[in-house]
Design goal:
The complex is a heterodimer of chains A (559) and B (436).
Chain A (H helix, E strand, L loop, with lengths): L2 H26 L1 H17 L8 H7 L1 H15 L5 H28 L4 H7 L6 H13 L2 H7 L7 H11 L26 H11 L6 H17 L9 H19 L4 H16 L6 H32 L6 E6 L3 H12 L4 E7 L5 H11 L3 E6 L3 H4 L5 E4 L3 E2 L5 E4 L2 H9 L9 E4 L30 H6 L4 H5 L22 H6 L15 E3 L4 E4 L6 E4 L2 E3 L4 H10 L1
Parallel strand pairs in A: 1-2, 1-4, 2-3, 4-7, 7-10
Antiparallel strand pairs in A: 5-6, 6-9, 10-11
Helix pairs in contact in A: 1-2, 1-3, 1-4, 1-7, 2-4, 2-5, 2-7, 3-8, 6-9, 10-11, 10-12, 11-13, 11-14, 12-13, 13-14, 14-15
Chain B lengths: L1 H4 L6 H10 L2 H13 L6 H18 L5 H18 L4 H31 L16 H19 L1 H10 L2 H6 L4 H13 L5 H24 L2 H4 L5 E5 L3 H11 L5 E5 L2 H13 L7 H4 L13 E5 L4 H5 L4 E4 L3 E2 L5 E4 L2 H10 L4 E4 L31 H6 L1 E2 L4 E4 L6 E4 L2 E3 L4 H8 L8
Parallel strand pairs in B: 1-2, 1-4, 2-3, 4-7, 7-10
Antiparallel strand pairs in B: 5-6, 6-9, 10-11
Helix pairs in contact in B: 2-4, 3-4, 3-5, 4-5, 4-6, 4-11, 5-6, 6-11, 10-11, 11-13
Classes of the chains: A alpha/beta (559), B alpha/beta (436).
């Protein structure tokens, strides 16, 4: 991906003069003119994270070979140009145009935050040719160096801004950058229920966080949807409710990608809806569904958690040192249960940026009177040194036995398994079967979730917990100085005293990272822990090795 | 005490500034307190401060008797080491200076031996202008006498030394400026220089080495980084940054930086984005160049927790370190160990870049004693005071990384396997100084 960037300056240097003549025919000759978009689209596609600095150079690079091939075709193959070839060319053009449109649309969607880019590029799909041809000509012509020099200002600001926005997706994870997460309820369909609207925002802000919690909250919201649902005339409830629900689901997934547990729950709910006899009266059907939801939550989560906590607590012995990562609700329940049972043990919580979920766990455990030690990811090797057991929560268990959990879990499990010169520490995963999935994952890259990278910008730990839902404030540097002070008092706000100016720089180096070329921030949500690091998975159906996940999953879905 | 005397914030630069004016004992106290309070923290700053202080100590020590010089340096060294036992660089520099003095003393003895046979004696040259002109003569007399006495008692021992042990280090390190050039100069200039001048020159060379070490290491960058590589690193180590920058001048690759959250993330963020905000002592004395991103290198900043997730795509892990132990193990910023471990699991080579001055002759027996714990409020800020009361918050600053997790060391002398480090140790430090 970097090669063209390398070659661009040299190519442009050579081709500046020769590129001039072919540029004139380009405007009158349709094929060559259409060649341009092809190249353009291709370069744009190849280099998702292309810097806008190099953009003019690339634009210049592109027409040169295009013109070359075009002139070659004109010289050698113009006369024997068959209709078939013409057709092929036309098809290619069309494909290219389509690709370009798609890219522009994606770009517009991705850059929803920046209205300028949308305005600048909204029209091209309608008239791609007109838009590109002059641009291409301008880049080829004597204006090109000018553009390059003033690459930061320039007339093509809109284009550049769009490029910059695209820039920020890490290439390896390109497939994971979907549309940007929804920031408001604006634009949500009118059929989306108010409870779902609220839940969506809560999910997005990590107010409802954790696989089980998200699952329960979703089911409860859907229960309210079902309760307030009335079948429109001319359809039956089993047919229409599914589509009605799918609107809600789509909305939820724009707020935050659905978790495995949510997916499993929704699948079960849809099955339940499909099972309803169309002749059942509406109120009876709704009652059945509500009961189904209640029993699903009870069986799959609430009772399951109790069962797991009880059996996991039995694994804890007096004098144990339990290491856990981040804040899993089921691990919390387990530890509290063990404490309740009168076991004497110590807990070491490892936490990570940016969510600091372990803090809440630490608070809960400390309030319950447990002996808690707290450190961050950098202290893993110290925390694991005197550990006797590792308890982990799960986001999901994949069919190949991998544990898919909050990013950093794999590091903890690995450290437990590879303690230098010591006995291996058993790694125990607590996981409800509703989190089992038939998907497989070899690494953490193919399946993952990417959170807003702005969450990484603020370095202040306290803000992370309380002020998370306001990424807009972090992107705008001028607001920053007030931000950390906001919680304290109004007295410090008017005077930018030395203390504040000293504290402010900490978030500032990254504050403008979106405008910094070549700099990317990556905020992954999950990672996949290899199955060999997991000794035991405790589920409500019993304690299993990770290899038993697909079997249990099949059993539980066939029921 | 140091901060009251100076308007500057205490640190390396203020220390060096005050070194010229303050009396020796004050300077020693000054450095001791700086070390104790961790106002000097980076290994190179510590090394530089120690070297400059020893330069002052040696130049103020009005004796040319090597034993007295050694005693003086040892006593100062002991105080510095006691001030911050985990800062091994200080001990390393002291040991190297001691080694210098011993080398010079031995050479001198040999020279005396040879000269007395030849019967020729020339005026001692003092290239460095020392305050008094009368000194050289006295010193020479003293040296003569003491050496004479020495010679009568143990000439065979000296010659045995020179027969067996001495020639080896000379041959085996042709490229260390610190240890090679004094000998070379000695042979070319004749054997008449006094010990102290030679030692001072040697210390100056150590200081020069400290200044150049990053660039020397960076010179090997192109041997290790190829195009389109994905490199993972940790913290904002200047050595690593320079290494990568050197390669960035010629090649395009991708750098993933783990931010090393509580202890070094601010510096890492600043390094990554190129806007250096805090005037860190680390950055003040080397002209920091353009950041990597300005060279067209894609830099991806990740939280430390994402290391395992990304490791499968990483081609190489390049790490800086705090100090290197003689067994090839590392004492590096906390979090390094899991990164190295994750790299090992993914069969990714781990390269450690470190100046030779960080190489310590200490064999670690008690790993925990090497680890320093830092400010817990960085992990859990005081806003969570209720929580801080109830739980035990830990913020380790260093990690011990065992040698088997490291594939390659790149020092200013070149690349070495971890198992070879003991050899470099024996080249740089004399056995008698290892525990002084």
């Amino acid at each position: 991906m970097t090669e063209p960037v390398d070659s661009a300056p040299t190519a442009s240097a050579q081709d500046n003069a020769p590129a001039q003549p072919p540029s004139q025919p380009a405007t009158e000759n349709p094929p060559s003119q259409q060649n341009l978009p092809i190249r353009d689209a291709k370069t744009a596609k190849d280099k998702g994270p292309a810097q806008s600095d190099k953009q003019p150079a690339k634009g210049k690079d592109a027409p040169a070979p295009a013109a070359g091939t075009e002139s070659g075709a004109a010289a050698g193959g113009d006369k024997p140009l068959t209709p078939a070839e013409l057709k092929k060319k036309a098809k290619a053009d069309k494909a290219a145009r389509r690709a370009k449109e798609k890219i522009e649309r994606d770009g517009g969607a991705g850059a929803a935050g920046g209205p300028a880019s949308g305005a600048g590029q909204a029209r091209p799909p309608a008239t791609p040719r007109k838009d590109v041809a002059p641009g291409g000509a301008a880049q080829k012509g004597p204006k090109a160096p000018l553009l390059r020099r003033g690459s930061h200002g320039g007339g093509s600001a809109a284009v550049e801004q769009k490029k910059k926005k695209e820039d920020k997706s890490v290439a390896v994870f390109g497939h994971l950058y979907g549309q940007q997460r929804r920031t408001t309820v604006a634009g949500a369909g009118k059929e989306v229920h108010a409870a779902v609207l609220a839940l969506g925002l809560q999910l997005r802000d990590y107010v409802v966080c954790g696989s089980s919690a998200r699952c329960v909250a979703t089911m409860l919201a859907f229960k309210r949807v079902v309760e307030s649902y009335t079948t429109p005339l001319g359809t039956s409830l089993p047919r229409h409710l599914t589509t009605h629900l799918s609107h809600q689901i789509t909305y939820l997934s724009t707020c935050r990608p659905l978790s495995i547990s949510q997916g499993n729950a929704i699948r079960a709910l849809k099955l339940a809806i499909a099972d309803i006899d169309p002749s059942t009266p509406e109120s009876a059907a709704k009652n059945t569904l509500c009961e189904f939801i209640d029993s699903f939550i009870r069986e799959k989560i609430t009772v399951a958690d109790q069962v797991i906590a009880e059996s996991a607590a039995q694994k804890i012995q007096d004098g144990d040192v339990i290491v856990t990562f981040a804040g899993s609700s089921i691990v919390k329940q387990t530890l509290l249960q063990a404490h309740h049972d009168g076991k004497q043990f110590r807990v070491s919580i490892i936490d990570s940026r940016p969510l600091f979920e372990g803090k809440n766990l630490a608070r809960a455990l400390a309030n319950a009177g447990l002996d808690v030690q707290y450190s961050l990811v950098h202290g893993i090797s110290h925390a694991i040194k005197d550990a006797t057991k590792v308890f982990l929560g799960a986001h999901a268990m994949t069919s190949n036995g991998r544990l898919y959990s909050r990013v950093g879990t794999a590091l903890v499990a690995m450290s437990a398994k590879e303690r230098a010169g010591g006995v291996e520490v058993p790694v125990i995963v607590c996981c409800e079967t509703v989190k089992f999935t038939d998907r497989v994952a070899l690494d953490s890259i193919v399946v993952n979730e990417i959170a807003d990278a702005d969450e990484l910008v603020s370095a202040n730990a306290a803000q992370q917990v309380t002020g998370l839902p306001d990424p807009a404030a972090f992107t705008a540097p001028p607001i920053d100085p007030k931000k950390p002070k906001g919680g304290k008092s109004a007295s410090s706000a008017p005077t930018p005293d030395p203390v504040s100016s000293e504290r402010v720089p900490s978030p500032s180096p990254l504050a403008s990272w979106k405008d910094t070329h070549n700099l990317q921030l990556l905020n992954l949500m999950y990672d996949a822990t290899p199955a060999e690091y997991v000794d035991m998975v405790i589920t409500e159906l019993g304690s299993l090795p990770p290899s038993a996940v697909p079997i249990v999953h099949r059993m539980s879905t066939n029921m | 005490m140091p901060s009251t005397a100076l308007a500057l914030t205490p640190g390396l630069s203020s220390f060096l500034k005050s070194l010229k004016t303050n009396p020796i004992d004050t300077s020693i106290e000054n450095l001791v307190s700086l070390l104790k309070r961790r106002q000097i923290r980076h290994s190179r700053s510590c090394a530089t401060a120690t070297a400059y202080l020893l330069l002052r100590v040696v130049s103020a020590c009005r004796t040319s008797e090597s034993t007295k010089l050694i005693e003086r340096v040892q006593s100062v060294g002991r105080r510095l080491m006691a001030a911050q036992p985990r800062e091994m660089v200080v001990g390393n520099i002291v040991r190297r200076v001691l080694g210098l003095i011993r080398d010079e003393a031995e050479d001198d003895r040999e020279a005396e031996f040879a000269l007395s046979e030849a019967g020729s004696e020339s005026q001692p040259q003092t290239p460095r202008a020392f305050d008094d002109a009368s000194m050289p003569l006295d010193r020479d007399m003293l040296g003569m006498r003491s050496d004479g006495g020495d010679r009568s008692s143990r000439p065979p021992l000296t010659s045995m030394f020179s027969l067996l042990s001495h020639p080896e280090p000379e041959n085996s390190l042709p490229s260390t400026p610190g240890s090679q050039s004094p000998n070379a100069r000695l042979f070319s200039h004749g054997h008449t220089k006094d010990v102290r001048a030679e030692v001072l020159e040697g210390i100056n060379e150590i200081i020069d080495e400290l200044g150049q070490v990053d660039d020397q290491i960076a010179a090997y960058a192109l041997d290790h980084i190829h195009s389109n590589e994905i490199i993972l690193t940790h913290t904002s180590s200047t050595t690593v940054q320079k290494f990568l920058l050197k390669a960035a001048a010629k090649r395009k690759f991708t750098v993933i930086i783990a931010e090393s959250f509580p202890n070094n993330h601010e510096a890492t963020h600043a390094t990554v984005s190129g806007n250096i905000v805090g005037d860190d002592e680390n950055l003040s004395f080397d002209s920091f160049q353009k950041p990597l991103i300005a060279h067209g290198i894609t830099v991806i900043l990740i939280p430390d927790s994402a290391v395992f997730a990304l490791m499968s795509r990483v081609n190489k892990v390049i790490l800086g370190t705090h100090s290197v132990l003689a067994n090839g193990g590392l004492v590096a910023a906390a979090g390094t160990r899991v990164i190295a471990r994750a790299a090992k699991v993914h069969q990714t080579p781990v390269v450690v870049v470190s100046g030779v001055y960080k190489l310590s002759p200490v064999y670690p027996f008690d790993f925990d004693s090497l680890i320093e714990y830092g400010d817990a409020s960085k992990v859990l800020p005081f806003e969570d005071g209720d929580l801080v009361d109830k739980i035990d918050v830990q913020n380790p600053i260093y990690d011990y990384v065992p040698a088997e997790l490291v594939d390659l060391y790149i020092t200013n002398l070149g690349g070495h396997a971890p198992s070879y480090l003991y050899r470099i140790v024996s080249d740089h430090y004399r056995k008698e100084d290892i525990s002084f």
